[in-house]
Amino acid sequence: xxxxxxxxxxxxxxxxxxxxxxxxxxxxxxxxxxxxxxxxxxxxxxxxxxxxxxxxxxxxxxxxxxxxxxxxxxxxxxxxxxxxxxxxxxxxxxxxxxxxxxxxxxxxxxxxxxxxxxxxxxxxxxxxxxxxxxxxxxxxxxxxxxxxxxxxxxxxxxxxxxxxxxxxxxxxxxxxxxxxxxxxxxxxxxxxxxxxxxxxxxxxxxxxxxxxxxxxxxxxxxxxxxxxxxxxxxxxxxxxxxxxxxxxxxxxxxxxxxxxxxxxxxxxxxxxxxxxxxxxxxxxxxxxxxxxxxxxxxxxxxxxxxxxxxxxxxxxxxxxxxxxxxxxxxxxxxxxxxxxxxxxxxxxxxxxxxxxxxxxxxxxxxxxxxxxxxxxxxxxxxxxxxxxxxxxxxxxxxxxxxxxxxxxxxxxxxxxxxxxxxxxxxxxxxxxxxxxxxxxxxxxxxxxxxxxxxxxxxxxxxxxxxx
Length: 467
Fold this sequence. Notes:
Helix content: 25-40%
Mean pLDDT: 95
Order of helices and strands: EHHEHHEHHEHHEEHHHEEHHEHEEEH
Number of helices: 15
Largest sheet: 8 strands, parallel, barrel
């Protein structure tokens, strides 16, 4: 297909510190909430004891192997690499006045390595983890004091890396707190809606303060939010299904509305009122929220359907986001429905709503890969998935949507977030490690490695439109 991607499109990949780095107690790093979730974000919260271990403690050892891995990303032609900073490497307990120099120096080295190859960092400040010290001592994001601790952390890293990092994100998939409160805001899973939304409010204020700090500190810096793009369709054209779909889409669009428009929408105030949800929002908070993001970033893996039919809803309550399956779509090995056209639809929905540049910062296919006798890994299923989604991105650009870039999720195999599995592989690069933590950690290029290299080199011209 002839390329519709802009000349300076930011092609690349995305990883998270707690899923790749390992070295979980190295160089003064403190315990994070992720360290207490050895079975993933939907597993039990497990206190650490001497001598125990979890797969994320080593992960893929990116902490020590990042030069090799960044060289592989450069070989594919990456223009951009999305990483996250582990907050606990900078402030081990979260409430220290002075940062941990060893942690700051680590990311200096990583950014310098990326600069060698002309790869721009896109840095998430908090990706599914926060210092456990803030949960233990203060109650996580349920405590207003956490806003100040986060702002101190954000200002510290902005000052340190202001000449190395131009693009920042505040909180990864900020709307996920509604489904996984401990992961998102450091609250117990059985917290009330009022408690969860109060914690979310504190996080939204902290995000806005970080936006203001970035604009003050980083010359020419741009900072965005990050949404889990869980777009929903009505299962039928029954008006009640359409209205309920709008309501459920607003559950997550609310986060974008606050961060991009600078205040709480009226529909959310009605929702709070009708559900007895009490959230303390001060005049100072309202002023802080007026500092809005520069661009919208989001993840997209699947779409879902909505119905007011309770019997069908009950069958859906076994999957990750309680989505009703779409009868017109196929599913991955993990039951995630595959909907490339949904990405074009979502891009148009977000651009129509916000009129801000969009950045697709996660998209990919988790699958079980097989190493052949000759050492090759023929992951055509991944190539097909990514090709079809990128064709739809090109269509959205042709629709007039301003898309800054695309960073595929897990360009190198990593520990999955939901269940902490290595067998759920996303990468263009295979890592020899299994779910039990066995393996040499050797890196190996998959067939998709060469495919993605060609996509980047051709600026999307090599994509195949099968329509």
